[in-house]
Structures are given as structure tokens and as C-alpha cells.
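Hello,

Following up on my earlier ticket. Below are the two sequence lines again, exactly as submitted.
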Amino acid sequence: MANSPLMLTGRERAMTGWGRTAATVANVDAVSSVEQVQKIVREAGPRGVLARGLGRSYGDAAQSGGGSLLDLSAMNDARLDAATGTVTAGAGASLDALLRTLVPAGFFVPVTPGTRMVTVGGAIAADIHGKNHHVEGTFGSHVSSLTLVDGQGEVRTLTPDSPLFWATVGGMGLTGVITEATFDLIPITSSLMSVDTDRTTDLDDAMGRMIEGDDAYRYSVTWIDSISPSGRGVMTRGDHASVDQLTPGTPALAYDPQPRLTAPKVIPGALLNTLSVRAFNAAWFRKAPKHRVAELQSIPAFFHPLDGVLEWNRIYGRGGFLQYQFVVPDTSAHVVPYALKRLRDIGAPSFLTVLKRFGAANPAPLSFPQPGWTLTADVPARIDGLANVLDELDTLVLSEGGRLYLAKDSRMSPAMMASSYPRLTQWQEQRAQLDPHHVFTSDLARRLSL
Amino acid sequence: MMDALGTPQSVLVLGGTSEIALNTVAALPRNRLARVVLAGRPSPALDEAVQKVRSIGVADASSVAFDALTVDSHGAIIDAIFDAGDIDVVVLAFGVLGDQAQSEADPSAAVMVASTNYTGAMSASLHVARRLRMQGHGWLVVISSVAGDRARRSNFVYGSTKAGLDAFAQGLGDAMQGTGAHVLIVRPGFVRTRMTAGLPEAPMTIDPQDVARITVAAMRQGRSLVYAPAQLRYVMGLLKTLPRPVFRKLAERQG
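Thanks for your patience. The regenerated structure is below:
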């Protein structure tokens, strides 16, 4: 059986995004030095190279069928400069690991998404946002320098004065392999959050109160009961608590983010349906206080509640799920209730539906956030009629000047991509400078003709 | 790339005028279907098939000259198609019924049936499998036949070629485990097509549209073998257990 082209080498791994859909098989190489990355890039085969972090992109952004996937988790050194409030971290360092070091030292990451299980490299490549976008922008906006291995295997240091820096921020790993980055931190005096919670009676109520009040809060998000036709919800807003808000004697910077539960391996497909989500959503809504001010919450409870359940993505069963996230300008707020209604029409149960306001965009051509409303909804992939309803919503989002988030996308069309990111061609020209032969590619890049 | 909802972007049909394959293309979710390549012997029928695919909204529909019997050319033809972009679904649908009596009278006619249905299909499948393994994803749909489940007096030349192809495709499916590629074997019963025109219909006869629907559903469910119609699985399971004299009698009556 010598040299059979069908034989496996043992390096193959079936990969999906967090939504567990559209698996492809790639060769995984763990690397621990910049030199190793350079060597793999220089010897790249026809299916290319891509860095993969912790696989929290929902769709196919961090997979590449037949290609070489780099695991940089060993490149996770972090050097804190407390005097300037910055950290220099290897691209494979997770926000989870960083927080364990930074919080006790009195610092917080500039931006965290709803999970701390993302890497620094992934945070830059997807230009992630968090509950503070309306005030502090994306993760990439806080990066002062990054190191990149480009398509020729050359090491480059990029800073925000270069367009190539901004092509890499939000560039989905397609401009090169980020190996290290330096970024600003938020100084904190306690590890607790001071949180105001309000039940919102419907979408108008939530949106009105967010427009009026968000500017007074560093962090703000509203969870929506997607099954209730009213769109009732729970708005949580807050900031890092100052040390004088704490009961005297409590350790101010203690941080213990241990997960408590693991989702079971085998989940009956029927567990997640409209009925169970209705029950969950109702309970979640009632559990929230009508109005409560300055409640002290832990960092994991406020930012990362789902990280408390390891592998929670399994609850959607074998068919997997997707997360639909769009942004539309403030003047197109009507898209939000319409999108929720269309998802309700096809009986798409979602327990993770959140609404947030974005602030100003940054210069990155493929960065997702722009001023306006962003709605995020989880949907099981095997809902009848889902493809057509989402295509219909894409058309609406596009016509209102909005777009979808590449780190969440797993199904938009190449035409939608090109029209909703009008600076795509500009990004492609910049990418050509960094990677003229398209060594870096992904299933997402192939699917969307990037 | 196949997307999260199981919608393909590109399809290759080997045997580009096959009614089962063309109906399968039409039955696939089409929201993202942008490229369909129909490989077959150049003919007005092949051009017509390209037009038909274009008419259902596929922007990039084209034909490629391909002859199952010219196995030496298969590699270059299939490589060129995959070099132009990933193929999400390959439907291997070429095949001839042959004429059993003519095959018995002229064994070289029997060999032609085998060269098309079995060795030609084996050659094309191996080239496709090599490319699917390289790209780390994709489906190879092999149109087999219940005629391969148990040889019958009336068409054992055809039946034996499908039996060979079917066994080959089973092994190929096992070989593709862990490569990201999938092999789906479709075993239709009697299907109303050009190939069977003029023959007496068997029980459970279906149309190519039915085979197409069953094939697309089987891919969606991630299956490796499906009968069309599905109930034939039980019928063939039973027929295979019959003692030969009994089966012979039954087959004689069926024709």
C-alpha cells in the first residue's frame, strides 16, 4: 500500500467551528516558535496554512479542508508592563489564562467577548467586540503592535499607522500568522463588577432605555426572550466595581473562574425545542430583578456565564447550530423586531438572543462593528425553512446598510459578503502585499471567495 | 464549500446526461449552487443538459468532454475540474444497461458494459476520491442498482457490473473514513428513464425525481447507503435469503 493517495498520515483532524456544522479534515501542526511557523509557511502545500485558536468562531473561519492548521497554544508567554498598563502576549495565549494573571495584578483585558476561551491571535483576527463596544471599540483598537509571519514566511512587526496592520485586524487569519501582540489593559481596583439590572417589557422599552442610558455605562447588553412576541428582556449594565464598594475584608482582586458543569456527551435531539426554550426563557426573565442597582457580580458571572458549562454547544445535538449576528444603523432599528419575528415564524428556538449598541467603527476594512444595533441569535441548523429566512434577512440587512459578523457566519453568500463589506477589494489589495500567493486560506475564505 | 445548512456551492456530474444525476442537481438546495460541471461524451444532449442546469439558476454551468471507456484520460480531466475550485458533490451516474442477449451472443459486448459500468466507474471514482481526500471534504454519490444485490437470469451482465461497482464503492467509503470525504451508494430499483424505456415496469417503479429526492435526503442525514425507494431495502433483504431455485422461478415470472 505504499504511497496510496488515500492513506491517512495520522495528522488529520475533523474540524468544525463552535456551531459543529460543515466539518472538514485538515492536518494539525502544533508549533512553539516563530521559526517553526516560518518553515511551515515556506513549505506550504496547495491547500494552504491557517492559524486556529480555540475554535470559538461559530462557522468555518478556523478550518481549512486539506490544509495545514497551526496550533499556537504553546506560544502563550505573557509579559505584563504594569507601569504602562500594557501586556505583550503570544498569539496562543487565551484570555482565560491572561485573566488569571492580570486580574490579581489589578488589570483587565480591554475587550472580552461572551467567552474567555479565545486566544489573543483569534481576538485580533476576528477583531472581537464585547459589552463595552459603544465606549471602547473592538479588541484591535487597543493593540499597539503585532508580530506577523506573512505569506513569504517573513516576520513583520505591524503598528496602527500601517494599513497592513488594519488588514490583519479583522482579517480572519488570511494575511498571515499572528505570533504576538501588545495591547492596552484596563486598570481595576477590584475583581468584582458593579451591575445594574432592569427587566425590559418589550423591544421598544429596551431600545429606548439603551439609547438613553448606555453612555453612562462602560458595559451594556440586553438579553431578549426571543420566543415572547413582545420581545421582553433583561438589561444588564455596569462597570468594574471600585475597591470601596466591597465589604471591608474581602480580597479585592481574588479571581476564581473554575467551570462547574460539563454538558453531557450525548444529548437527545429533542431536548432543545421551542417548548424547552420557552420554559428556559421565562425562567430567566423571572429570575432577573425588575430593577436592581450596583449589585456586585464576579467577572465570570457578568461576562462569561456560559463558560461555566463546558462544551455547552453540544446541547444543540448532532445537527449543530449557527449564530446569526448582524449590525444595522440606528435608523434601521426596525430590522431587529422583524428578524426576531421571522425566526419565530419558523419556530427557531433561541435562548441566546442578545441586543447591543455599537459605537464607532475602526479603520479595519473587514472589522464587523459599525455604529448601530447588533442582534445575535443562536439557531439550530436543522430548522426547516431556515436557509430561505436567513437569506431574506440578509437582503434586508444589506439594504439597510448593515452586515454580518464573519466570526459567526457559516452560510451567507459571496455576493452578500462583497456588497455588505464595500471595502473588501481594498482589503484584498492589502492582503496581496502580505500574502501574494494566498498561502493563508480557510473554508470561510473559499466559501465567500475572499 | 458546503455551508452550515448543507447547501453546496459546486457539483460535478460524471455522466452529464443522466436523468437521475440531473434531477439530483435540481433537488439539491440551490441558494448557493454556483458551479455545475457536466462531464460526458460531447453531444447535443449534453449541451441541452447544460442549458437545463443554467435554467434553474446556476450561473456557472459547463460541460467537459469525458468518456468512461478512455480511462487514461480520467486523471487529467478530473484534476482540471478540481484545480478550478473545490467540488462539494460528485455524482457518478454514467452506466449502460446493455442487451443481455447480445452480450451472450457477443461477449465483447458484455465487456463493453463492464468497461463502462465497472472499470470505467472504478477509474473515475479513484481519481475523484484522491481529490476529495486532498480537499478534506465532499461527497461522492455512486449510482449503483438493486440489480447488483442478486444476479438474475435476464440481466446478469448488467447486474454483475453493478455488484462489482457497489462492492468497490463500499470499500472506497471505508477508505475515505477520516479524510473528510463521504461516499454515498444509491441503489435504485426500476427507474423510468431513457435507459429503461420500452422495458416492462417492475413493482415499486419510480421516477428519477424520486431517486434524486431520496439521494439528497440521504446526504443530509449523512448516510452511506440508501435504496430508492427506501422499502426496497427490505424487499432485497428478503430476496437475497431465498434459495436459488425459488429465486430463479420468481425471477423468471418477473422477467
